[in-house]
Amino acid sequence: MKITVLYVGSSLLAPLKNAEREINRAHNLNLRVAAYNFGSPLSDGEWQEVESDLNDANIVFVIHVMDGENATRLVTALERTQHDAVIVINCMPQLMRHTRMRRLDIAAFNGQKGKGGRLLRSVGSWVGNQAKRGKSKKRSNTQYLKLVDRLPGILQFIPTAGALTDAKHYLYLFCYFLQPTPANIQSMLLYALVHYASNPRLKKIWVPKPEQM
Known about the structure:
The chain has 213 residues and is an alpha/beta fold. It has eight helices and four strands.
């Protein structure tokens, strides 16, 4: 079983490897987490490794990839690979559109009603528009912090059945990442496996709710 994580940043690699170790220790899943930092252009040899790990990944996470040659090549790679789920967080719009979690459609958030629907629209708007040119960093960060405060409490109002199921799963994964403690990163990976990997053993695993920093 494999999760491939493509990210930009300097603080994710250690928590990801720790999560791999702890998930295997606790659940004996033989999980491998393949992680690549897209903060600088990759060589053709490195891209061959990325594409190999994409080809046989059950779950793919794409995090903070905004622009550049790596993003362009990743869009092409995702278009020709199949996975149980592709979870894109805080990326350029072209990548956000490659989020694949069964029935999840970020564009459909606008049609949802009530408190859960309002938050879904807020998240959908933020993740879909943050990479557009001309948007101030201060405004983006303010909106991000508001989501940190609101998301954990509002999740209880979103049903876990029907059309919103996959949207709620996305929001839970987003919530784990909003406060990326080692425990939350571990739970984020495990949550994705439990709900999207095609292994019946996973359905019996309990995943902790996001912890606060």
